[in-house]
Specification:
The protein has 46 helices and 27 strands. By secondary structure, it is an alpha+beta fold.
Length: about 1150
């Protein structure tokens, strides 16, 4: 039986007289025999085991010494031993034989099939022994006599003779002859007996009879019985305790394993967790929260050096109490002047979970004497004797940058992997940027992929199609998850079998297929593959007749709001479901036009889905993820997914769609719009920001090149920081927030120390530390999907066993028993049956303390997270847009620092890149003779794909057509002079009946400012001022944005009609965008898909919808999305009068911001 890397091998030996001896093989592969069964068979039941051993200890010691048996073969596990009362007292085989002889037991263990040995010359050696042999051959002793002669004897007769001589001292045979032979016989017999029981241990585990004391009480339950019991109930998911109580042949019903198995398992798991991470300093944690009975945080810790993972104690997130707060923060709380309370609450729970392995968030604080931050104006960095010092010109003091006693191996480092939500981001930003802790947050790429894809679908009105076909794809599971409609479809098929014999062979009638859940967004594409070719078959099968193009037409079904178009897609579908029911509605949603739109949706998303599934299937282990990051970082492979999107959108996709529909004038813009902006931003933000930017150092072939580039880039950053501290304007540097992270600065500092090392060995050691740190930050569990799978499996288990629904122990057990981690092949901690069988009963309250975040108050500097930001109390914020801005600013900064003479306008001149346009537009650089398709635009540059002339294609007006290069042609560009750049108006078209797609020029190229005015000017006040200053137009510094826009229009437009049209477009651009509450929208859409006429009123669904309703009505504020020039998601505040003191609940803080955790569709 395999458990936790070891094999528990138990054996039992039933003697001919019915006596049963048993034992097991220990970790040293030595047999240990249970002493209680030995004493029971020796009829020594009147004495307890430990009393018998204590009374005969000295006697055993002397006898074992005489038999040359080491005392270590006697295992006494009483008071004072290392593991008291765990496995019980045991003896090894040679000590067992000595105890059998010493106690004058009946010689029932010697059989005729023993090995033979010749003692033919015994008469010459010792006549007394020879006579004794003849005597014992004729007269029985203890019911036994010798059965062989001296000329041909066996081992068992020899052993009987030796024991007889020991207990007949008057013959002096023992002291003159047997005492010399006895140790050798004991050794040989022990060896043979060990070999025999080794064969017995290979047999399937067999239960041992339960022993009783003379008073009828149960003795210690054999360990093998407990293991067999756990094996019997292994498949039992609910009511395990009740089932265990029925196996009275194995264990009594009152033992701890039966009464409190969950408590035993959790207690042992915490011990394993504490032991495994006892000396861990560098840890990676994937964490996410979800709603069970209350909001519960689940975290998985991973140590890349030991290659082991485990679940930290779950955290029941409870409200922050005023008693926990520092008095200064408490005063602000009473005054209602705090914010980000829920973010602090989340970070407190996260810290408490980490505290179980001795690494709370406070452990990752930067030592005060380790100087990593940017230099101030009065500081200088000097090198003396191969060591860097920080010299303060004001105080004339000097200090080592790295203390002598500091060690990387002893410095705690944390990699946090979570979704980019409004609760965890502020806390992590405060921790890494304000407190400068050694924490590197990595945000979930799985959620980012879905958000990017959903944004693209919304922009072309295809999200409704996804909702419609989700209803169809989930039909086999309706109504209400009963799967009854699957049988109903089969019945319909049988009725039509006479007409269409092939209907019954449809795949959708043989299998239920995938279930669409928007939280598992890829399930939609799996369902599309499953239903391929069967959409209209299904429509015909469950429909009520009519042609394929028949949709929802009867006005009796449609409400006035639907007819008037006053409802959004989600609400319209909800009302239709209430009116018609899902069974009638689903087939009417499938028409040739909606089917084609669905094919378009899948065609657009196929590269994203394929790339995601490929990574999910091939990159499961942390070292595989690190290898993938190293392969993509610093090369164009980071844009492999974008390459696939371009190839599919321009070349492959058009060949799979109906050309007639594809060229429909009404839907032309919708059908072939390109949606790659967010994927470019997301992929670049992940791979092109340090430290992953330099992950190529993990590969031997690119290590030296990467390390040299890393040193050169950091030297440029330090030079710019020093200039900025002296008052120079370095605006791009202000957006490079990654340089403020302590982990990043530590990596670069060690790389600098390698450059000034005095010896080759020292240089190599420093470079190895850099590689070690890059390995640490790259070797992780990739995303929070593994935690979400844990949530799903744990909730399913708790739903089956409702008595565990509100138990902290139950939730922890459900997590550690699920297969989320083992399914990835990642080594994880697990409590074996062997460990549970020997565990001692513990109190559940000891574990409950580990799940109470209120017992873990963070220090004042952490609590200041809840203070409102001011000029002195501020820090950068991480959003998806700001991550992209960091990448663009970094690319421009390194380009400028490499050759600043080419850019006479200075380091801030690349801000003109914001005039390039939106994703999908085409610009040209006249000086370089290049034309390119814009993919994504940032503050100091843009990413674009190079275009080529479409050979042989001319527009009706005789203008050119362009097509993307088939190879990976993505590049970053920076506009510093407007004269070199023009915007080229284009529209999409097809080069042939089935493509490929090309971009046709529609009119003459125009300047970038004029193009932006025609598209609808949307610049910030600062950008407007810079643009006017560039053209030497006077303006006031405090002038409003509208008046600045007016000055720009006067500069580039001539007629009032043009200016009025431009103002109209600007007004449309400046309208507030419809808020997309990612989590709430996705959750509500999922609930509405599940809810139909047959399962309305489900309490769980109603509970979730009530939470969403609270957010929508403003009782709980939802953070709005950050704008392009904003650095933080700021929650909308709702004016609210203060309640009278008597109405406030004492001790609790009113959260200023709350969002639904656990579904992760944020950012």
């Amino acid at each position: 039986m395999e458990e936790s890397g070891e094999v528990f091998r138990s054996f039992s030996w039933t003697l001919p007289h019915g006596h049963c001896l048993a034992g097991y093989f220990n970790s040293n592969k030595e047999a240990e025999w249970y002493s209680d069964r030995l004493l029971h068979n020796l009829k020594i039941d009147g004495t307890k085991d430990h009393v018998f051993f204590q009374r005969n200890n000295e006697k055993f010691k002397a006898e074992l010494e005489g038999a040359e048996v080491p005392l270590s073969q006697l295992h006494y596990r009483g008071a004072g031993s290392e593991d008291p009362h765990k496995a019980g007292h045991t003896v090894e085989t040679r000590a067992l034989l000595e105890m059998l002889r010493q106690a004058c037991a009946k010689i029932s263990g010697f059989f005729e099939d023993g090995s033979t040995r010749s003692l033919a010359d015994l008469e010459n050696l010792h006549k007394g022994a020879s006579k004794g042999w003849d005597k014992l051959s004729q007269h029985a002793w203890c019911g036994r006599k010798l059965s062989t002669t001296l000329q041909q004897t066996n081992l068992w007769d020899i052993y009987l003779f030796l024991i007889w001589s020991k207990h007949n001292p008057s013959s002096k045979i023992w002291e003159q002859f047997s005492v010399h032979l006895y140790p050798k016989v004991v050794f040989l017999a022990g060896y043979l007996l060990e070999a025999y029981v080794d064969e017995l241990a290979n047999l399937p585990l067999a239960p041992l009879p339960l022993l009783k004391t003379k008073h009828g009480n149960s003795r210690r339950v054999p360990k093998v019985n407990k293991i067999i019991l756990l094996q019997r109930v292994k498949a039992q998911k609910r009511h395990r305790g009740e089932v265990m109580q029925t196996h009275t042949d194995l264990t009594p019903p009152q033992i701890a394993l039966v009464r409190a198995e969950a408590n035993l398992e959790v207690a042992e798991y915490v011990k394993l967790l504490t032991t495994a991470f006892a000396d861990t300093q560098h840890v990676q944690v994937s964490w996410d929260a979800s709603t069970y009975d209350v909001e519960t945080l689940v975290a998985i810790a991973y140590d890349y050096k030991k290659n082991v993972s485990g679940y930290l104690p779950i955290q029941n997130i409870s409200p922050v109490q005023t008693a926990e707060l520092h008095e200064t923060v408490r005063t602000l709380a009473v005054q209602g002047r705090i914010t980000r309370v829920e973010s602090y609450n989340t970070m407190r729970s996260f810290s408490h979970a980490l505290n179980s392995i001795g690494l709370p968030l406070a452990a990752f604080a930067k030592p005060p004497d380790l100087l990593l931050g940017p230099l101030r104006a009065e500081e200088e960095r000097v090198l003396m004797n191969g060591t860097y010092f920080i010299y303060n010109t004001t105080t004339q003091s000097i200090q080592r940058q790295v203390p002598t006693a500091w060690s990387l191996a002893k410095q705690p480092l944390l990699i946090s992997v979570s979704d980019q939500g409004p609760l965890n981001c502020p806390g992590l930003d405060h921790l890494q940027f304000k407190l400068r802790g050694f924490v590197l947050p990595l945000y979930d790429q799985s959620h980012r992929t879905w958000n990017d894809l959903k944004s693209a679908m919304r922009s072309v009105k295809l999200f409704r199609i996804l909702l419609q076909f989700s209803i169809l794809y989930n039909m086999n599971y309706g109504p209400g998850g009963t799967k009854a409609w699957m049988a109903k479809k089969q019945q319909y098929a049988e009725e039509r079998e006479a007409l269409f014999g092939t209907i019954t062979s449809l795949q959708t009638l043989q299998q239920h297929g995938p279930l669409v859940k928007l939280m598992r967004w890829f399930s939609y594409f799996q369902s599309h593959q499953f239903y391929a070719g069967e959409h209209f078959w299904t429509k015909m099968l469950i429909g009520e007749g009519g042609p394929p193009q028949q949709g929802i037409q009867p006005e009796a079904v449609l409400t006035p709001d639907i007819l008037a178009g006053n409802l959004d897609d989600r609400e319209e579908l909800r009302q239709l479901k209430l009116k018609m029911g899902s069974w009638r509605l689903a087939p009417l949603l499938v028409t040739p036009w909606t089917w084609w739109k669905n094919e378009l949706l899948v065609s657009m998303a196929t590269p994203v889905w394929s790339c995601f599934t490929q990574k999910a299937q091939q990159l499961k282990l942390p070292h595989e993820i690190a290898g993938d990051i190293a392969k993509r970082a610093g090369t164009k492979l980071w844009a492999e997914e974008i390459h696939a999107v371009i190839g599919n959108g321009f070349f492959d996709g058009p060949q799979k769609l109906y050309p007639a529909r594809f060229l429909s004038n009404e839907e032309e813009g919708q059908c072939i719009s390109l949606h790659f902006r967010r994927r470019v931003q997301s992929s670049a933000s992940y791979y092109l920001r340090p430290p992953f930017r330099y992950a190529g150092a993990l590969l031997a072939e690119s290590r030296e090149t990467t390390l040299r580039q890393m040193h050169a880039d950091w030297a440029a950053v330090l030079k710019a920081e020093k200039a900025m501290a002296g008052g120079a304007g370095m605006e791009p540097l202000k957006e490079m927030h990654w340089r403020l992270n302590s982990v990043n600065r530590l990596i670069h500092l060690i790389r600098d120390m390698a450059e000034v090392a005095s010896t080759t060995a020292e240089r190599r050691a420093y470079n190895n530390q850099v590689v070690e740190l890059l390995t640490f930050v790259s070797t992780h569990l990739a995303d929070t999907v593994i935690v979400e799978n844990t949530h799903q499996m744990a909730k399913d288990a708790l739903r089956d066993a409702r008595h565990f629904q509100k138990s902290r122990t139950g939730k922890q057990v459900a997590c550690i028993r699920c297969s989320a981690i083992p399914s990835r092949g990642v080594p994880c901690l697990k409590v074996s049956d062997d460990q549970k069988a020997t565990a001692s009963a513990g109190k559940s309250s000891s574990f409950d303390k580990l799940t109470h975040p209120n017992t873990h108050a963070l220090k004042k500097e952490f609590q200041r997270l809840m203070e409102t930001k001011t000029k002195q109390h501020t820090w950068p914020s991480t959003t998806q847009q700001m991550e992209w801005q960091q990448v663009v600013a970094t690319e421009w900064f390194l380009c400028y620092m490499q050759d600043g003479d080419k850019f006479a306008a200075g380091p801030n001149s690349a801000w003109l890149s914001v005039l390039a346009g939106a994703a999908g537009e085409v610009v040209a650089c006249q000086r370089a003779g290049e034309i390119m398709l814009i993919l994504a635009v940032g503050s100091y540059g843009f990413a674009a794909w190079d275009l080529e002339l479409a050979a042989g294609v001319r527009t009706a007006a005789g203008m050119s057509a362009f097509r993307p290069y088939r190879h990976n042609a993505i590049r970053f560009h920076h506009i510093t002079e407007l004269e070199d750049w023009v915007s080229v108006p284009v529209k999409p078209g097809l080069s042939g009946p089935h493509g490929p797609l090309h971009l046709e020029q529609t009119s003459e190229a125009m300047s970038l400012p004029l193009a932006r005015i025609h598209a609808g000017l949307n610049l910030t006040c600062k950008q407007c001022q810079d643009l006017l200053a560039l053209f030497k137009v006077n303006f006031r510094k405090n002038q409003s944005r509208a008046s600045l826009h007016g000055l720009i229009l006067d500069l580039f437009l001539e007629t009032e009609h043009e200016k009025e049209e431009a103002r109209r477009k600007m007004a449309a651009c400046l309208l507030p965008q419809e808020e997309e509450h990612a989590e709430d929208s996705d959750m509500e859409e999922l609930l509405e898909q599940l809810e139909d006429l047959e399962n309305q009123g489900d309490p769980e669904i109603q509970k979730e919808k009530e939470k969403i309703k609270q957010r929508r009505t403003g009782r709980i504020a939802v953070p709005r999305a950050a704008g392009p020039d904003e650095g933080e998601q700021v929650p909308k505040r709702k004016a609210k009068a203060k309640a009278p003191p008597k109405q406030r609940k004492k001790g609790l803080l009113e959260p200023k911001m709350k969002a639904h955790l656990g579904h992760g569709f944020t950012g």
